[in-house]
């Protein structure tokens, strides 16, 4: 699979490392060049330094041929703009978006192509599941 | 109308004053404490201090009853996000956004933002016109630049100087809105005579602006 990842923070770099190790072709786009240091040494994908909210930068990352885009910057507003650009301007078939503020999820609801991962909701769900499971014991 | 303005600086200040003077109810959201305080002191509007990209702040500003939300920050991602939040969460029907990167204009349009102001294009077209001719000033653009209203000073060597309007060869879609002579304004009729030094207020499609400038402004 050809995967473009926007944002190379802790989440983006972890995903990029694992997905590239499991045989996917990966491109990582990140504005701050220092962040590429978070990628594991065996990362074999491409690194592009630039603002993903600029079409030229997305094009450089070959967004048009991406099977999957993962949008994972730490800014909900940038994540929203980049996901909409990918959907409307570049017709990316599958877009996974990380959200910081759980209340933002609803903004993506109308579009089936978006898959939303709210870290706070996920964490809370995991904890609740564990608490409930342990409660049964 | 109930209007929410997001952003700060001079633009918001003047815009808010104008809207208030026309009888609209204006609420301003600003995330800079000092600017918010200054605005609250100087303008008769409700000022909410906070980040408009936060749902609770929009709620505090009365987004559920707003007719129009105008987002004028320097960041396109903030303007888009705030407008969409107002639409999706509070059912605001009209949203207006400043677009700093011209490439985003179409995207914002597709996403349902009703008013889009492409700053870069607006400013560059105004500068372009003032470079082309010093005697042309752009008064305003209507419907995102689909119609322009501007003013041209009649040059002594222009084809129009000394002629009556009906004698001037003008495309039909160029409308003359006024003649300014020595500070007095008259409404042009077919028999009005144009003199060198007159300032003509013209309403035209942007693509016909150059033609109008050529007729009244004289040879380049």
UniProtKB/TrEMBL annotation, chain A:
A single Pfam family, by name? Answer: TrkA_N
The answer to keyword Transport applying to this record is: yes
GO CC term (a single one)? plasma membrane
A molecular function (GO) held by this record is: potassium ion transmembrane transporter activity
Domain RCK N-terminal as annotated: residue spans = 1-121
Its name, as the record gives it, is: Trk system potassium uptake protein TrkA
- Highest taxon of the lineage: Bacteria
Alphabetical list of SUPFAM superfamilies matching this protein: NAD(P)-binding Rossmann-fold domains (SSF51735)
Q: Which UniProt keywords apply?
A: Ion transport, Potassium, Potassium transport, Transport
From TrEMBL, chain B:
GO molecular function list: potassium ion transmembrane transporter activity
Q: GO CC terms for this protein?
A: plasma membrane
Where the record annotates domain RCK C-terminal, the positions are 137-219
Tell me which UniProt keywords the record has, alphabetically: Ion transport, NAD, Potassium, Potassium transport, Transport
Keyword check for Transport: yes
Record Pfam families: TrkA_C (PF02080), TrkA_N (PF02254)
SUPFAM superfamilies, alphabetized: NAD(P)-binding Rossmann-fold domains (SSF51735), TrkA C-terminal domain-like (SSF116726)
According to the entry, every stretch annotated as the RCK N-terminal domain falls at: 1-120
Give the protein's recorded name. Answer: Trk system potassium uptake protein TrkA
Originating organism: Halanaerobium salsuginis
């Amino acid at each position: 699979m050809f995967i473009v990842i926007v944002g190379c923070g802790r989440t983006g770099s972890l995903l990029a490392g694992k997905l590239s190790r499991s045989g996917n072709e990966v491109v990582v786009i990140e504005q701050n060049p220092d962040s590429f240091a978070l990628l594991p040494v065996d990362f074999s994908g491409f690194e592009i330094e630039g603002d993903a909210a600029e079409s030229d930068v997305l094009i450089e990352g070959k967004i048009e041929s991406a099977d999957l885009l993962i949008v994972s910057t730490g800014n909900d507003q940038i994540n929203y703009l980049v996901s909409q650009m990918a959907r409307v301007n570049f017709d990316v078939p599958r877009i996974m978006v990380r959200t910081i503020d759980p209340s933002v999820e609803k903004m993506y609801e109308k579009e089936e192509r978006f898959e939303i991962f709210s870290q706070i909701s996920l964490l809370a769900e995991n904890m609740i599941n564990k608490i409930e499971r342990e409660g049964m014991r | 109308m109930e209007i929410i303005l997001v952003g700060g600086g001079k633009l918001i200040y003047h815009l808010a004053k104008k809207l208030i003077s026309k009888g609209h109810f204006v609420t301003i959201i600003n995330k800079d404490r000092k600017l918010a305080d200054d605005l609250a002191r100087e303008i008769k509007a409700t000022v909410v201090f906070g980040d408009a990209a936060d749902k609770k702040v929009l709620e505090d500003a009365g987004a559920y009853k707003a007719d129009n939300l105008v987002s004028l920050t320097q960041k396109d991602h903030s303007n888009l996000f705030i407008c969409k939040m107002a639409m999706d969460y509070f059912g605001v029907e009209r949203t207006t956004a400043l677009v700093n990167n011209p490439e985003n204009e179409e995207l914002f349009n597709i996403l349902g933002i009703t008013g889009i102001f492409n700053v870069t294009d607006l400013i560059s077209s105004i500068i372009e016109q003032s470079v082309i001719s010093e005697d042309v000033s752009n008064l305003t653009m209507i419907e995102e630049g689909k119609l322009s209203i501007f003013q041209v000073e009649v040059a002594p060597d222009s084809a129009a100087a000394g002629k009556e309007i009906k004698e001037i060869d003008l495309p039909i879609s160029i409308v003359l809105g006024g003649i300014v002579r020595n500070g007095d304004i008259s409404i042009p009729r077919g028999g009005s005579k144009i003199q060198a030094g007159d300032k003509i207020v013209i309403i035209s499609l942007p693509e016909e602006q150059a033609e109008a400038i050529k007729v009244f402004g004289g040879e380049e």
